[in-house]
Every structure is written in structure tokens, then in C-alpha cells.
Amino acid sequence: MLRILWILGLLNLSTLIFAQEPLPANEAFAFSYQVTAPNKVLLSWQIAEGHYLYKQKFKFIPLNAVAQIVAPVFPVAETKQDKIFGNVEIYRHQLELELPISQANDKFNLDVVFQGCSDENLCYLPIHQTVSLP
Predict the structure, then answer these.
(1) Which residue range(s) make up the domain with 50?
(2) How far is CA 130 from the centre of its chain?
(3) How many angstroms separate the Cα of 132 from the Cα of each of 34, 92, 99, 111, 129?
(4) What is the Cα–Cα distance from 90 to 27, expressed in whole angstroms?
(5) What integer is the mean pLDDT of 87-107?
(6) Residue 31 lies inside a defined structural domain of this protein
(7) Total domain count for the chain?
(8) Which residues have C-beta within 8 Å of that of residue 41, sequence separation ≥ 6?
(9) pLDDT given at position 60
(10) Assigned domain for 11 exists
(11) Which of 5, 25, 1 is nearest to 116 (CA)?
């Protein structure tokens, strides 16, 4: 009996030693943007293997009261039965969105909010990225 407990203890210890640390959010969902025209910005995510972003969790919040955001057209998403949110649409690998912007002043800041999880059931808190447009 003692031998079985000792073996089980070793197995648990090896699981802890060889378990991977979760990726930091900025590595799991590497975000970048590029101004493509005076009224358009291209938002890009490189999504790490084994991770995904929820389509329903994107928000685009203008930080300047005079700016207007036109809803982006999302590409076709993969459907997933999620333990937390039920039937959801997700993106894996890479996502690019062109975001049209209508603005009345020279400088414009935008809060881009997104959320995702890993296939290992680790969900990240909503992530905020500020986009500054000239």
C-alpha cells in the first residue's frame, strides 16, 4: 500500500514538473495594427497554437467623443461548444479586421477589447489595447 502511494506521489510530482506554464496574454494573442487609410485601420492578431479568441467578445471603444466606429466585417469563424459560454464562434491562428473610422478631429485613440481561452481551459481576462491614430 505504501508503495502505491509513493508511486502516485511521484506521478503527481512529474505532472507538476512537466506541466507547461500558461502563455502570457500578449504572447497568446499578439496584437498589432496598421493605419491603411486616413479613415481605416487594420487590426491583426497572431493567435498561439492551442488558443482562440471569441468573436462575441470584441469591443471597439472610441476614446474621443467625436469619433465614430463603423462595425467591422468579421471573417467566417469556427463554431465551438464552450463549457463556459455554450455554442460560440471563435478564431484560431490569425485574425485580421479592417475597421472603418469616421472622425472629426486630427488625433484619435481607440480601446480595442478582446478575450480568449486556451484549449487547456485557461480563460484570459478581457484584454485592452489602445490604438493611437494620427
Answers:
(1) 25-133
(2) 14
(3) 10, 26, 13, 9, 10
(4) 18
(5) 86
(6) yes
(7) 1
(8) 33, 34, 35, 98, 99, 101, 110, 131, 133
(9) 93
(10) no
(11) 25
User: Among positive and negative, which fits the CA dihedral 76, 78, 83, 86?
Assistant: positive
pLDDT of 48 above 60: yes
| Any domain includes 20 | no
Rounded mean pLDDT, 51-75: 88
Residues 6+ apart with CB under 8 A from 94: 44, 45, 46, 47
Q: What is the 3-state secondary structure (H, E, C) of 10-35?
A: HHHHHHHHHCCCCCCHHHHEEEEEEE
Cα 126 to Cα 115: distance, rounded to the nearest angstrom? 5
Share of the chain above pLDDT 70, in %: 82
Tell whether the model's pLDDT for residue 34 goes beyond 80.
Answer: yes
What confidence score (pLDDT) does residue 18 get? 42
How distant is the alpha carbon of residue 45 from its chain centre? 7
Residue holding cell 489595447?
Answer: 129
pLDDT band at 12 (very low <50, low <70, confident <90, very high): very low
What pLDDT, on the 0 to 100 scale, is given for residue 102?
A: 78
Which CATH number belongs to the domain containing residue 66 in this structure?
2.60.40.1250
